[in-house]
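Posting this for the archive.
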Amino acid sequence: MRLLPVVVLLGTLYPAAAAAQDSRLAARLDGVTAGRVGTLVDSARADSLPTEPLVQKALEGATMGATNDRITEAVRTLLANLRAARSALGVGATETDLVAGAASLRAGVTATALRELRASRPRESLTVPLAVLTDMLARGVPQDRASASVLALARRGGADAEFIALRRKIEGDMQSGVTPAVPEVRPRGMPAPGAPTPP
């Protein structure tokens, strides 16, 4: 019985949040486009997918002066990527992981790579590794090499700080005018090729 007030409160807040989203869309988009985007947002909500990224995508398109059709298509594509990300990462994936996964899919990362990354980090957040992977692709690192490097680091138990260090290495190469190179990631304790073997 003590849960009843909480349930009632959530029931009153949920429509309020939806109305706030609808009002933002109605204020920036024409009626037809706002309705189409709203339908996509409702579909995401029904599937327990993040809705705010969809609203922000529509508002971003309006700010940039995109056509109504392009705004609708961009939101529809993002929703498809969110669904694909959850399929690859599992129903227990957090909202931040889903958003990062959708961005990585849009950048060219394969669903297989997402599944392998999830298997390599079954209980940890994937937000940082996925953000680093997406950034590497944006900087010109080939998809297969970027994915292999991030997956290798995940498989050996790399912490978020190590993924960030990997990204900084790529950034340093770019700032120096060097073609981005993915350093080899070896399991912990494994010597570099050519290094003397300990007795």
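The radius of gyration is 21 Å. Residues 1-19, 185-199 have pLDDT under 50 and may be disordered.
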